[in-house]
Amino acid sequence: MNAEVAQLGARSVTARAYGKINVFLSVGPQRADGYHDLVSVFQTLDLAETITLSPAAETAVTLTGPRADTTVPLDDRNLAVQAVAALSEATETHIPVAITIDKQVPVAGGMGGGSADAAAALVAYAELIGCDDADLLTRIAAELGADVPFALTGGTAIGTGRGDELVPVAGSGAFHWVLATSVASLSTPEVYRTLDELRRETSTATDDTLRDPDDVVTALTAGDPHALAGVLHNDMTDAAIELLPGIAEVMESGRQAGALAALVSGSGPTVGFLVADPTHALDLTVLLEATRGVRDVVRTTAPAGGAHLVTG
Ligand code: C5P
């Protein structure tokens, strides 16, 4: 054990961050850096990733919780590992940590679980080393991934640029969602590529003009699920269905079972169903659990908060 680790003793730090749903996602053309300009309205979901960092002889990752999944990398491809490495580099505090990730967010579902891991790891490592430079955390978050800054701030926000230039939205009330995860997974870059191809190939595909999120913001501000259901939007929908046609069937099943609206979550393949209240959520859960292609059904609410320390 090096001197810094010995000084910290056995102290461990826990932080939490949340998954997200994009209630509005308008994707523009691809930029020179490979990313796409977009306009997104995000809400965090009450599905937490809880990260505990404990000083150790070397960095290692352990997964626990209901959605611990063997496909999550445990090496330096893991976003929590990258977050610790980036903040350790920037602050020149090289303290190896054992990282425990308690997962509630479905893996590879377009719900920002990896980004939440990165955000929680940044907050936990900053606490461990006594760093209170919020601007540094925000800067590192944006370097780690387009969705990490939102996982850090949480709540409800409009994201522009790559999705990482955020303006908070004052939402009200809680929205009830039922999420149907898929037995299949989709790669985010591949969904973006497919969207570009569809736009090139077909004149019927949505064009790449960025749309205005005003109606969505109005519905969120009013806390009105019926109004929100009418204006949910995701430009990635056709591309996700092109790669995984079963998504369309899952969306249809949920609509027929009384969901107010169905929405592909981010780049998919998770489908989110907006429902009026917890009773409808329960009814829909039972039906979706019996639907082909659905792996797991999760009931949750939005918005949740941003990344924060967990004490005690
Ligand atoms: O930033 P992050 O690693 O989450 O993005 C994953 C991939 O998604 C990027 O490498 C890029 O292919 C695609 N992406 C994009 N435009 C965005 C966000 C992500 O093309 N605004």
UniProtKB/TrEMBL annotation:
Domain GHMP kinase N-terminal: 78-155
Reactions performed catalytically: 4-CDP-2-C-methyl-D-erythritol + ATP = 4-CDP-2-C-methyl-D-erythritol 2-phosphate + ADP + H(+)
Active site: K20, D147
Keyword Transferase: yes
Domain called GHMP kinase C-terminal: residue spans: 219-281
Pfam families: GHMP_kinases_C, GHMP_kinases_N
Family matches, as Gene3D superfamilies: 3.30.230.10, GHMP kinase, C-terminal domain (3.30.70.890)
Top-tier EC class: transferase
Protein EC: 2.7.1.148
InterPro entries: GHMP_kinase_C_dom, GHMP_kinase_C_sf, GHMP_kinase_N_dom, IspE, Ribosomal_Su5_D2-typ_SF, Ribsml_uS5_D2-typ_fold_subgr
Binding-site residues for ATP, renumbered to this chain: P106, V107, A108, G109, G110, M111, G112, G113, G114, S115, A116
Pathways involved: Isoprenoid biosynthesis; isopentenyl diphosphate biosynthesis via DXP pathway; isopentenyl diphosphate from 1-deoxy-D-xylulose 5-phosphate: step 3/6
A GO molecular-function annotation: 4-(cytidine 5'-diphospho)-2-C-methyl-D-erythritol kinase activity
Keywords: ATP-binding, Isoprene biosynthesis, Kinase, Nucleotide-binding, Transferase
Family: Belongs to the GHMP kinase family. IspE subfamily.
Function: Catalyzes the phosphorylation of the position 2 hydroxy group of 4-diphosphocytidyl-2C-methyl-D-erythritol.
Protein's UniProt name: 4-diphosphocytidyl-2-C-methyl-D-erythritol kinase
Organism (species): Brevibacterium gallinarum
